[in-house]
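Good day; I would like, with your permission, to put a structural problem before you. A protein sequence and the structure tokens that stand for its backbone fold form the material at issue. The record follows directly beneath this note:
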Amino acid sequence: MEVVNALGRRKAAVARIYMTAGSGNITINNRELKQYFPQATLQYVVLQPLNLMNVAGQYDIKVNLDGGGINGQAEALRLAISRALVKIDAENKTELKKAGFMTRDPREVERKKPGQPKARKRFQFSKR
């Protein structure tokens, strides 16, 4: 099997992955998965598409993660892994799409407006 590369994004996070046949090693920015994402919930999010397709120990994944916070990075990596699995076998797409892993979450942070402390919050109104 040749190297399959894919891209995943979420908020400001970008995950570029290179998937090859192997023994299930996931290296993120030259660190192990458990070292990069110490929380079990984030590790679970990353491994969801692999567990759904029952291929958890079959691929080595090298990841370049950039931008955003840890939750956005984990979800960007999930999308990238899902896209790579579809490139490997197009029949995986229906199952991954049904689970919601093929859709890029379009929600972004709303910009701060001038004259306000945050995007939607207003300064306290004073009648007199």
Strands lie at 4-10, 13-21, 26-28, 31-32, 59-66. The mean pLDDT is 94. The CA atoms of residues 28 and 96 lie 22 Å apart. DSSP finds four helices and five strands in the chain.
